[in-house]
Recover the amino acids of this structure.
């Protein structure tokens, strides 16, 4: 499977397993799972054909491990805007986590902290390199450090997805460390 096809199938899966399952007539269960055969048939019925082998390739090779499969079912690992419960247990975060963004969002972040926007949780990275890559998707990246240890001490709950993304409801501005002059 060539890289362009892999990306195309991955984006299709992300759109329909995270945001718009109803658009192709599938229903995710409470944990975000759908039968693979049901997904493939629904996609084909809506004009996007892919094989089980292509799906397995995307799941196995996605650099961010965006999807989880259990043999007969598939789900997105995190990032949903539809209502699902991934069943992730609370986890103790490392002292600092990181969030990649771009300069144009910094004023709002300073005022409001990090909010989930259209997702269920704020996504945080365990290292600066990953946060840099996340921020770079939208322009020149800015990496914010999150005092996750203090947040956890103050009662904020964290979860970590199967692919290593840290999730929390929101990050108040007081827990953020901005680079450079404030």
């Amino acid at each position: 499977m060539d890289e362009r096809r892999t990306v195309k199938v991955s984006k299709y899966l992300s759109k329909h397993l995270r945001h718009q399952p109803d658009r192709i007539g599938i229903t995710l269960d409470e944990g975000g799972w759908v039968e693979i055969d049901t997904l493939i048939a629904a996609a084909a019925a809506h004009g996007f054909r892919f094989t089980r082998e292509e799906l397995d390739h995307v799941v196995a090779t996605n650099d961010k491990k965006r999807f989880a499969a259990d043999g007969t079912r598939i789900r997105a690992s995190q990032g949903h805007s539809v209502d699902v419960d991934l069943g992730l247990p609370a986890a103790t975060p490392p002292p600092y986590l990181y969030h990649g963004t771009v300069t144009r969002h910094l004023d709002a972040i300073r005022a409001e902290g990090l909010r989930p926007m259209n997702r269920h949780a704020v996504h945080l990275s365990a290292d600066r390199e990953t946060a840099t890559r996340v921020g770079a998707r939208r322009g020149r990246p800015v990496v914010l450090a999150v005092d996750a240890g203090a947040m956890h001490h103050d009662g904020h709950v964290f979860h970590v997805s199967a692919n290593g993304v840290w999730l929390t409801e929101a990050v108040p501005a007081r827990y953020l460390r901005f680079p450079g002059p404030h």
